[in-house]
C-alpha cells in the first residue's frame, strides 16, 4: 500500500516587502548625514588651514646652518715606512755597575773592557790585610765568650744541683741538731754533777775538820792540801750551779738556730736565688756569644767583599777604577771616593735611544715595529718601540723614543750610531680589503660648547623645524685648522646651527635663513 509524501507550506518563506521601515531608524540616519559628516569635513579643512598658516601665527627664529665636515682616513699598509730617525745603541734598560760593598784600596783589576764575565765572577780585589786581622780578633773574642758561656753553664748546673739536693743545709741542720742534743744532755746531767760536787764538798769539809782536830799530829802541808781541796770543791759547786742558766739560754739559742736552718732547708731561698742568677748569667753569656758571632760574620762578610764580583752574566762595558785607587762603599758619600769599579751590560738585551722629531711623534706607538740599520750590519734588523720618554729636548726639538733590538747580533755594541725606520703598525681595517676607509666627523671648534664638563652642539631638526642641543664626544687629538673631531653624537647628515644659537632653547622653533659653508668642506681623504 503506497504512502503519500508530506506537504510543504512555501508561504512561510515569503517576505512581506510592503511593510514600511520604522520611522526612528530613518530619522537617525538623516541626522548623521546632514550634520555630523559636514561638520567633520569642515573641521579637517580648518585644521589643514591652521597648519599651513602656522608660520604666520607662531613665528620661528631665523638661523643659519652648516653641514658636518666628513673626512675619510687613509689606511696605511702594514709595514710601510713612515719616517726615519737617528739614535745610538745602549744597554737595556740601563748598564749594570759592579760596585764596592766595603771601603778599601784596589789591589788587582781582573777584567778589561770587552771581557765576557759570569754572575759571581771576581772582577777586582781589594787589599785585605786589615780585614783579616779584624776577622782573627772577632774570632778570638767569640772563643772567649764561648768559654764564659761554659763557665756560666757550669755555675747554673751547680746551682740547680744544690737546689735539688741541698746537702750543705742538711749537714748544717744535722750539726745544729747535734749541738742542741749535747746542750740538752749537759742540762739534764747538771743536777747530778751538782750533787756529786756537793758530796765532794762535804767530804772535803770533813777531811779539813779531822786534820784540824789532829793538831800537831799531822804536818801543816797536809792541812793546807785538805783546805785547798775544800776550796776547789766549793768552787766546783758554785760553777755547776751557775751553769744551769747559761745552758738553758744556749739550748734556746741552738733551738732557734736549728729551726732557722730547717726553714732555710724548706724554703731554699739562697739556692733558688743562685739558680736564677746563674740562669741570668747564662743568658747574658749567650747574648755576648751571639754578638761576637755576628761580629765574626760581619768580619767574614767584609773579608768576602774585598773581592768585587760581577752581578750579572754579561760583558764589561767600561772599567771605572784602577789599582791603588781608594774606593768607598755604596753607603758612603760620593765626596769620600767612588764605589763603581766596572760597568756591565747584557749583549742580548740592547736598545736604541732615538731622537724623534716632534712632528713625527703622533705616528709613534708602543709595540710599533721598526727596522734598525747600522754601519756594522749588511742589512737592517728588526726592532720594537718599548717606551717614549715624557720630556722633550727643547734644543733639538725632539723627543727620545726607546726601541728594543730583537735578537741583537754580536757586532752590535753600545754607543754605536743607528738609523731607525718606523714602520706602519697593523690596523683592523686590513682584515677586510673591500671595506671602505673609516669616516671621521669634524665640526668648527667655535660651535662646540661645554657645560658641566660635557660638550654639546646645536643642530636643527629639519623634519620638525626645531633646534636640538646634542651632546657629543670630542676626540682626544688636538684641533686641526680650527676643527674638532667628533667621535660620537653626530651623523654625517646633521646640520649645525651657526648663527642665532645664542638665544636658543632646546625644542625652540627655528627657520633656516641660509647656509654658512665657511667651516665646511667636501668629503676628502687625509
From TrEMBL:
Where do the CusB-like beta-barrel domain residues begin and end? 354-423
Transmembrane stretches, start-end: 35-53
| Family annotation (Gene3D superfamilies) | 2.40.30.170, 2.40.420.20, 2.40.50.100, Helix hairpin bin
Q: Which residues form a coiled coil?
A: 194-302
Identify the residues that the record assigns to the YknX-like C-terminal permuted SH3-like domain, covering every copy: 442-512
Q: Which family does it belong to?
A: Belongs to the membrane fusion protein (MFP) (TC 8.A.1) family.
Can you say what this protein is called? Cobalt-zinc-cadmium resistance protein CzcB
Amino acid at each position: 500500500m503506497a504512502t503519500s509524501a508530506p506537504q510543504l507550506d512555501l508561504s512561510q518563506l515569503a517576505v512581506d516587502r510592503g511593510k514600511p521601515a520604522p520611522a526612528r531608524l530613518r530619522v537617525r540616519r538623516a541626522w548623521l548625514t546632514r550634520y555630523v559628516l559636514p561638520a567633520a569635513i569642515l573641521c579637517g579643512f580648518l585644521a589643514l588651514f591652521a597648519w599651513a598658516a602656522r608660520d604666520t601665527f607662531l613665528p620661528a627664529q631665523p638661523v643659519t646652518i652648516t653641514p658636518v665636515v666628513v673626512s675619510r682616513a687613509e689606511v696605511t699598509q702594514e709595514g710601510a715606512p713612515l719616517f726615519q730617525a737617528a739614535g745610538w745603541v745602549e744597554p737595556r734598560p740601563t748598564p749594570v755597575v759592579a760596585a764596592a760593598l766595603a771601603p778599601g784600596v784596589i789591589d788587582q783589576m781582573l777584567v778589561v773592557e770587552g771581557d765576557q764575565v759570569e754572575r759571581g765572577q771576581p772582577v777586582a780585589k781589594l787589599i785585605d790585610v786589615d780585614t783579616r786581622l779584624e776577622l782573627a780578633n772577632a774570632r778570638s773574642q767569640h772563643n772567649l765568650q764561648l768559654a764564659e758561656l761554659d763557665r756560666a753553664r757550669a755555675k747554673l748546673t751547680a746551682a740547680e744541683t744544690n737546689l735539688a739536693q741541698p746537702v750543705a743545709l742538711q749537714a748544717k741542720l744535722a750539726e745544729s741538731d747535734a749541738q742542741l742534743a749535747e746542750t740538752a744532755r749537759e742540762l739534764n746531767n747538771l743536777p747530778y754533777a751538782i750533787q756529786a760536787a756537793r758530796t765532794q764538798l762535804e767530804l772535803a769539809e770533813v777531811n779539813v775538820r779531822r786534820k784540824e782536830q789532829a793538831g800537831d799530829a799531822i804536818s801543816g802541808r797536809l792541812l793546807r792540801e785538805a783546805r785547798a781541796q775544800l776550796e776547789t770543791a766549793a768552787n766546783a759547786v758554785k760553777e755547776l750551779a751557775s751553769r744551769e742558766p747559761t745552758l738553758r739560754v744556749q739550748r734556746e739559742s741552738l733551738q732557734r738556730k736549728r729551726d732557722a736552718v730547717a726553714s732555710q732547708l724548706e724554703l731554699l731561698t739562697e739556692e733558688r736565688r743562685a739558680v736564677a742568677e746563674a740562669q741570668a748569667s747564662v743568658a747574658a753569656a749567650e747574648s755576648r756569644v751571639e754578638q761576637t758571632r755576628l761580629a765574626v760574620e760581619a768580619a767574614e762578610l767584609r773579608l768576602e767583599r774585598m773581592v768585587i764580583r760581577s752581578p750579572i752574566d754579561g760583558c764589561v762595558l767600561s772599567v771605572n777604577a784602577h789599582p791603588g785607587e781608594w774606593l768607598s762603599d755604596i753607603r758612603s758619600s760620593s765626596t769620600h771616593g767612588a764605589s763603581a769599579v766596572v760597568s756591565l751590560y747584557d749583549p742580548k738585551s740592547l736598545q736604541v735611544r732615538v731622537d724623534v722629531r716632534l712632528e713625527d711623534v703622533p705616528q709613534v706607538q708602543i709595540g710599533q715595529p721598526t727596522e734598525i740599520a747600522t754601519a756594522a750590519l749588511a742589512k737592517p734588523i728588526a726592532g720594537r718601540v718599548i717606551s717614549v720618554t715624557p720630556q722633550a729636548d727643547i734644543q733639538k726639538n725632539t723627543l727620545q723614543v726607546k726601541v728594543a733590538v730583537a735578537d741583537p747580533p754580536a757586532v752590535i755594541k753600545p754607543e754605536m750610531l743607528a738609523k731607525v725606520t718606523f714602520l706602519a703598525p697593523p690596523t683592523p681595517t686590513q682584515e677586510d680589503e673591500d671595506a671602505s676607509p673609516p669616516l671621521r666627523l669634524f665640526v668648527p671648534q667655535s660651535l662646540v660648547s661645554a657645560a658641566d664638563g660635557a660638550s654639546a652642539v646645536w643642530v636643527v631638526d629639519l623634519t620638525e623645524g626645531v633646534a636640538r642641543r646634542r651632546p657629543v664626544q670630542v676626540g682626544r687629538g688636538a684641533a686641526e685648522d680650527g676643527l674638532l673631531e667628533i667621535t660620537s653624537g653626530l651623523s654625517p647628515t646633521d646640520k649645525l646651527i651657526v648663527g642665532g644659537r645664542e638665544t636658543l632653547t632646546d625644542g625652540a622653533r627655528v627657520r633656516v635663513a641660509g647656509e654658512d659653508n665657511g667651516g665646511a668642506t667636501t668629503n676628502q681623504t687625509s
